[in-house]
Amino acid sequence: MSTTYDIVICGAGIAGVSAAYFLGRAGVRNILLVDERPPLSFTSDRSTECYRNWWPDPEMVALMNRSIDLMESLADESGNVFRMNRRGYLYVTADEDRIEDLKSASFRTSSLGAGPMRVHSSETSDYQPSHPEGFHNSPTGADMLIGNELIRKYFPYLTDKAVAALHVRRAGWLSAQQLGMHLLETARRSGVRFETGKVAGVDVEGGRVRGVRLSSGVHIQSPIFINAAGPFLKEVGKLAGIDLPVHTELHLKAVIKDALGVVGREAPLLIWNDAQTLPWSEEEREALAEDDETRWLTGTFPPGVHTRPEGGGSDILMLWEYHTNVMEPVDAPAMDEQYPEIALRGLAAMLPRMREYFGRMPRPQLDGGFYTKTRENRPLVGEMGVDGAYVIGAVSGYGIMSACGVGELLAARATGSELPPYANAFVPSRYDDPEYQKRVENWEDGGQL
Ligand SMILES: Cc1cc2nc3c(=O)[nH]c(=O)nc-3n(C[C@H](O)[C@H](O)[C@H](O)COP(=O)(O)OP(=O)(O)OC[C@H]3O[C@@H](n4cnc5c(N)ncnc54)[C@H](O)[C@@H]3O)c2cc1C
User: Fold this and answer.
1) Is residue 119 domain-shared with residue 238, that is, in the same domain?
2) What's this model's pTM, rounded to 2 decimal places?
3) Which residues have a Cβ under 8 Å from the Cβ of 306 and sit 6 or more positions away?
4) How far is ligand 1, taken at its centre, from the CA of residue 46, in Å?
5) Is residue 216 one of the residues assigned to a domain?
C-alpha cells in the first residue's frame, strides 16, 4: 500500500503537533502526523507546564518572547481553554552574600530583552502582586524584593530566613494537554491527518527525501519529512542517515496532596535558589552517614528545588534535579523511590511548615520523562542535513513554553518563508562552524531549572 503527502511529521508530542498547526496555518494542506503512541502522551504529558521568558541566552529570550506572544493570542482566541496564568516564578535566597550576584544576573537577563528590572526594599514599594488567573494587565520583566518583611508580606508561607526574592513576571503555567489539543484540533480542521504507526525508515534517494516506511509495511511518499520524535530524535535522525548531537536525561516529578496548606493556593512557582544539606534528626543523620549507600543523603544538595500548587484541590508538584541521570529513553523508566521524600525535605528550607509532613508524607504520585538536550541547551529547528528532512526538538525542559515559537519557526523553514532573527541560532548546521563549536564547549549556563 502506498499513499502520498506533501509533508510527513514523525511524532505527535507538543513539538510535532505545533509544527502541524503552524504548517496548516501557513497554507500547507496535505500533512500526515504519525505517532506510535496517542498524541501528547509521552514526554508532553509529564511536564510541570510552566513557562518563562527569563533566560540567560539572548536567542532563547527572543524565542520565548515570541512563543509566549503566540500562546497569549491563542489563549485570547480560544477563551483561554488552556488556562494560561501569569503568576510568575519566584526565586528565593536566604544568603545575604548572593543578593548582589542575583541582582547583577537579573539586570543582565533584563538587558537581553526579558523586560525591566525593579528593585524593592521597603514596604512602601510599588510592587504589584500577580493575579492568580489569566495573564492580562500584568507587568513584564522582574521584581526583586529585598528584606524578609517585604517578602513575607506577599508570600507569608516562606521562611523567615529569606533575604531576597526575584519575581519573574512574564511567566506562569497552563494546561499543556489543553494547549496541545487546541493546536491538534485546529490543525485537523485545516486538513492535517493523524495516523497511529511507527516510522521505521526514511527513503532518501539522490540526497533527497522521497518518503517514509512504517513498521506495518505501509509506504508513504512525501518530499518532506519532519523529525519531531522527542527523546527518539537521535534514533529517527539515523533513519535518514543523520547523527543529531543530542542526549537524553531522565527527570522526575512528584505530586502530593498538601492538606495542611503549606503552599499558598495562589502562589507562583516557588524556587529555592540556595544549596543546602537536608534536614535530618541527629539520629537519622548518624544512621545515614554510617552506610556507604546512604551517606550521600547527608552531603550538600544543589539549589533549585521547586514547587507549585496544581489545580483547584490541594495538590502540589515537587521537583528537584539533585543529580543528573543521563540515559537512553525507555517506555517506563525505573523511578527513584526516594525522590518525593528528598524533594519534600529540600522544600522545607523555603517552606518551613513542610516539616509537618516529615515521617507522615501524604502518599506521592511519582512520574517522569526525558529531557532531550543539546550541549548548550538550545533546541534543534530546521534542515537536518538531507534535502527535504527537517528536525524540531531537543526542547529539553522547555518544550511546552517554546512549542509555539519552534513550531512557527519550523513552518517558516519548511515553506521558505521569512525567518525571525533567532532562526540561525537553532538550525542544526550551526555546529558546522568551528567557532560555534568552541563556544559550545565552554558554554556555562544552559538556563535550565
Ligand atoms: C519532569 C518534567 C518537567 C517538565 N517541565 C516543563 C515545564 O515546566 N515547561 C516546559 O516548557 N517544559 C517542561 N518539560 C519539557 C517538556 O515536557 C518537553 O520538552 C516536551 O514535552 C517535549 O515534546 P516533544 O514533542 O519534543 O516530545 P514528546 O512529547 O516525547 O513527543 C515525541 C513523540 O514522538 C513519538 N515517536 C518517537 N519515535 C517515533 C517513531 N519512530 N515513529 C512514530 N512516533 C515516534 C513518540 O511516541 C512521542 O509521542 C518537562 C519535562 C519533564 C520530563
Assistant:
1) no
2) 0.98
3) 269, 270, 271, 272, 318, 319, 320, 449
4) 8
5) yes
